[in-house]
Specification:
With 301 residues, this protein is mostly helical. 71% of the residues lie in helices and 0% in strands. Pfam families: BPD_transp_1.
């Protein structure tokens, strides 16, 4: 029997849209993480060149070949700034998804395996959180922490606040999915056999049940990666995420928005286009991953 990874790769090759999406994600991720170590940080004030500010893209009149996508109000090369910004956005997205996954899987596994009052308590908390949109909840957490600590918050703390805010806004999906799967799996014969051999409840939950219920959660995590990146961009655009002095797609879009009316459209349009391309590619991969783990959906199409 073929492994899940080989089956996924084979299905990728058989699906042109998923293959193109995977290639886009791979190339953009490589550019985001491979290029910045060899380039000067454009957000370092020492590297600013105000004489190059508002240089249009190279294909427009007065454009320069040295800046193929133009520069912003500080003379930063948009191409380089977008590489740094995408790296930050991906790191925040992956980290927040990891936090949501860890919290949600832990609580969902506990609720489904323990049952009773513990299950009821966790699910009621999840129901309450579902009443708040993820973006609104992230804004509440982010704003509350900033109000409490104020001037003590620096750039690194700001990044950590955004990651935790987005992560805790997404745990409910994982918890509810894991719980429903655990309720089915805990009555299976292999669980009963593990109990007979003297396995503890924790060992049964982690070593036997969890590996069999993770597939749908990984699909949700892939899709939530795109949502997390958009949430970070939204928070930064609204001014409650990362500061303008730190690179992310959200801060680049926010900065460019200040100059749309004056004609410097490229400062905002290029980061917006990059955000859309990356998130759409991630969502296509997530949709394909769902089909791989649920062949019934594929047969219905």
């Amino acid at each position: 029997m073929r492994s899940t990874s080989s089956r996924f790769l084979s299905s990728m090759l058989a699906a042109p849209a998923a293959s193109v999406a995977g290639l886009i994600v791979l190339l953009l991720a490589l550019a985001a993480f491979a290029a910045p170590p060899f380039l000067a940080d454009p957000f370092n004030p020492m590297n600013a060149s105000l004489l190059d500010a508002f240089t249009p893209p190279a294909f427009l009149p007065n454009g320069l070949p040295a800046f193929p996508l133009g520069t912003d109000d500080q003379g930063r090369d948009m191409l380089v700034a977008m590489a740094f910004g995408l790296r930050t956005s991906i790191l925040i997205g992956v980290s927040s998804v990891a936090i949501g996954l860890l919290v949600g899987v832990s609580l969902g596994l506990l609720a489904g395996f323990a049952g009773g009052k513990i299950d009821a308590l966790i699910m009621r908390i999840a129901d309450v959180q579902l009443a708040y949109p993820a973006l609104l909840l992230a804004m509440i957490i982010d704003g509350s922490v900033r109000s409490a600590f104020g001037a003590l918050i620096d750039v690194r703390v700001s990044v950590a606040i955004v990651i935790v805010s987005i992560g805790f806004a997404f745990w409910v999906q994982y918890a509810r999915t894991i719980r429903s799967s655990v309720l089915v799996e805990r009555g299976q014969d292999y669980v009963a056999a593990a109990r007979v051999t003297g396995r503890s409840g924790l060992a049964i939950a982690l070593l036997h049940i969890l590996p069999n219920v993770m597939a749908p959660v990984l699909v949700i995590a892939t899709i939530n990666l795109g949502i997390a990146i958009i949430t970070e961009a939204t928070l930064s655009f609204l001014g409650i995420g990362l500061p303008l002095t730190h690179a992310s797609l959200g801060t680049l879009i926010r900065n460019g928005n200040n100059f749309l009316q004056s004609g410097e459209w490229w400062i905002s349009v290029w980061p917006c286009a990059l955000l859309v391309i990356f998130v759409v590619a991630v969502n296509v991969l997530g949709d394909h991953l769902r089909d791989v783990f649920n062949p019934k959906l594929r047969r219905r199409r």
